[in-house]
Amino acid sequence: MIVDSSKSKLFSSIGQRATFGLACLELKKKYENLMVVTADVSTSAGLDRYKNKFQDNYLDVGIAEQNMIGIATGLSTLGYNVFTTSFAPFQSMRCLEQIKVNQGYMKKKITMVGIASGVVLGTLGYTHCCIEDLSIMKSIPGMTVLSPSDGSEVVKSVFAAAEHDGPVYIRLTGGSNSKVVNTDDYNFKIGLPIELITGSDLIIFATGSILVNCIEAAKEMKNDRGISVSLINVHTLKPINKNYIIDKVKNYKKIITIEEHSLEGGLGSTINQCLIGSMSNNQNILNLGLPDNYSISGEYSYLLEKYSLSKNGIKKKIIDFLNS
Amino acid sequence: MKKNILNHDLKKIRKSLLNNIITAAYSAGASSAHIGGALSMIDIINIIFSKFINLSPVNIKEIDRDYFILSKGHACLAYYSILAEKGFFDKEELKRFEKNDSPLLGHPVLNKKFGIDFSTGSLGIGISIAVGLAIGLKKKKSKNHVYVVLGDGECNEGSVWESFMSASNFKLNNLTVVIDHNKFQQTGSNEEILDTLSLHEKMNSFGFHTIEINGHDLNELETAFRKDPANQPKCIIANTIKGKYLSFAENNNKFHHAILTKTLYDQAVNEIRELE
Q1: Nearest to A310 by CA among A199, A223, A209, A205
Q2: Which of B66, B162, B175 is the mutation pick for testing A, counting most A CBs within 10 A?
Q3: Hey, are the CB atoms on B125 and A97 less than 8 Å from each other?
Q4: Burial of B32 (C-beta count, 10 Å sphere; 0-12/13-18/19+)
Q5: CA A69 – CA A109 distance, rounded (Å)
Q6: Domain check: are A157 and A306 in the same one?
Q7: Is A163 in contact with A23 (CB distance < 8 Å)?
Q8: pLDDT tier at B1 (50, 70, 90 boundaries)?
Q9: How is the beta sheet containing A202-206 ordered, strand by strand?
Q10: Number of neighbouring beta carbons within 10 Å of residue B163
Q11: CATH number of the domain within which A246 lies
């Protein structure tokens, strides 16, 4: 599916979840054997049109995620290109052992789409937030873990996953009416990060819809203070191209990772692990993300502000880090 | 697919399966083997593979054929013994049971060459896969069938009931669920650990065409497997004896997972020889 600027604007206005539903409509044109399986989340995942149009290639198993993964495994065995979806905590954790055995141990090709991940559903409390999925999914051997930055990248991820020979987890974050990260069509390859901005003072690795705030923070710092940063979109958490990361940080003293995910086991941990043993004494790394607790919750914007993941929060952290 | 095999032949195969099981269990030595739950389902797996299932070393790599899933994966000795019997692999392989780098571990590991379609062992997972296969085969307008064997202890797992609910919801008349009701689980009887009460009533209420039989009676088994409900999945509740056919293991839960010593092995050889 070609992504152009008008489509990317549409995707951003409807948000990542509704874009997933649109992507499935397109995907069905390419894959006759597509099977979309949900656990009573058709509307939440933007799948109502798909459900009505392709009844034979759609299955709702009810609110039963463990059974969903088992059924997906049977369907995958019969040659269907299976996508499952539910809210991120239920998609990644309720059925985690089924994922381990079926997709990990047996390597069944199933693409899981965790919707409304991160803290976008903060007002509903932490039962519905998901700050753990990247870490958990990364720990399953053979799992590919994607974290698209905007609607266009959701489409790219969905098509790449359908083509990929193995299990995939796609993490959808952010709300509707978010800003566009990728305006024009571009080359998306699983495992290959994308350099969105090139600068000299500091390098940022970020993932998911939070990249929009990073872009805006970078632009303002450039305009207001002449600070020039590089910004890398790490849309694939696993597999990670270690050499790419090591090579990218060579010319920077300050490295920042930014994610809407727990600091335990997500992007920060991944980048830190890549850089173990290759950083020099005058290099320093800062991990920004969500704390390792379930203490406070509330509106999305409030939480992003609270945890320095808003545009202003990111700016302040970067400036403090540069001055440290 | 109904193959024309007489009870007399099934009994001969049963003796061979028992010998296969004790060969593997004895080879495992100190690493122990799940003996009791394998023996309780020996007649179930015998009749499925000898008489009903369209699955062979020739068609195992095809997609459109029957499927068997051992949801109670710890009973793998019954599974390995029938696969060896049906020519999926050489019987000598049974002596590598639970040995380093063996394909035959203490729970089945997916291996088409050995006839194993799915890795199981974590309870409550296989049944969902069976439901997925049955849904997919129906969608493909295939006439093929899915057979899955669960333990009664396994029915403690909540995911099992998610699967059962969906099986009747999707009207899976191409799915046969067998519950090996040997009345025991790892550390005691069902009654002591988690009383399942009437599985028969439960399965009926979950929308299954339910048949309760003596799981060691070849005629009852055959009649149950031949039943062909029009619009429902089928459940055979097979009342069985844990450790069946070996006197020291029958209804003795010490043999849920145990070492088969030389003395017991020799005794087993004699007892199997004496069987009808």
Answers
A1: A209
A2: B162
A3: yes
A4: middle
A5: 11
A6: no
A7: no
A8: low
A9: A194-197, A229-233, A202-206, A254-262, A284-290
A10: 31
A11: 3.40.50.920
* pTM to 2 decimal places: 0.97
Would you state the pLDDT for residue A192?
96
Task: Return the CATH number at A141.
Answer: 3.40.50.970
Q: Is A282 exposed, middle or buried (0-12, 13-18, 19+ CB in 10 A)?
A: exposed
Please report whether residue A185 resides in a domain. Answer: no
- Cβ neighbours of A71 in B, within 8 Å: 128-129, 131-132, 135, 166
Please tell me which residue of chain B has the smallest CA distance to A35: B136
The answer on A148 and A11 residing in a single domain is yes
CA R_g for chain A:
19
**A109 part of a folded domain:** yes
Quick one: pLDDT at residue B65?
A: 98
How far is the C-alpha of A271 from the C-alpha of A276, rounded, in Å? 9
Chain B interface, Cβ < 8 Å to A:
63, 67, 109-110, 117-120, 122, 124-137, 139-140, 158-159, 162-163, 165-166, 169
Q: Are residues A143 and A214 in the same domain?
A: no
Residues A141 and A205 in one domain: no
Residue A188 lies in a domain: no
Find the residue in B nearest to A58 (Cα).
Answer: B139
State which amino acid sits at residue A154. V
Q: Residue A42: which domain range?
A: 5-171
- Phi-psi label, residue B221: left if phi above 0, alpha if psi -120 to 50, beta otherwise: alpha
Q: Do A153 and A248 fall into the same domain?
A: no
Nearest by CB: B119 against A61, A79, A101 = A101
Task: Tell me the one-letter amino acid at B164.
Answer: F
Per-residue model confidence (pLDDT) at position B181? 98
Answer whether A77 touches B (CB < 8 Å): yes
Q: What is the per-residue pLDDT across B161-202, written as a single tens digit (0 to 9) for each?
A: 999 999 999 999 999 999 999 999 999 999 999 998 999 999
Sign of the alpha-carbon dihedral angle for B173, B174, B176, B177: negative
pLDDT digits (tens, 9 = 90+) for B77-124: 999 999 999 999 999 999 999 999 999 999 999 999 999 999 999 999
Q: What is the pLDDT of residues B115-159, one digit of tens each?
A: 999 999 999 999 999 999 999 999 999 999 999 999 999 999 999
For residues B92 and A186, the model is more confident at B92
Statement: residue A162 has pLDDT above 70:
yes
What tens digit of pLDDT does each residue of B232-266 get? 999 999 999 999 999 999 999 999 999 999 999 99
Average pLDDT over residues A209-235: 97
- Reading the block at residue B238, the tokens are 């097979």
State whether CATH 3.50.50.60 applies to domain B7-274: no
Q: Which two tokens stand for residue A200?
A: 């000299």
Tell me which residue of B250, B255, B247, B234 sits closest to B274, measured CA to CA: B247
CB contact under 8 A, B128 and A80: no
Which residue matches tokens 């930014």?
A258
Q: Buried b vs exposed e over B59-88: b needs ≥16 C-beta within 10 Å?
A: ebeeeebbbbbbbbbbbbbbbbbbbbbbeb
Same domain, A243 and A158: no
- A111 and A201 together in one domain: no
* Nearest residue to B245 via CA among B76, B21, B7: B21
Instruction: Please check whether residue A95 lies inside any domain of the structure.
Output: yes
State how far the Cα of A93 lies from the Cα of A96, in Å rounded to an integer.
5
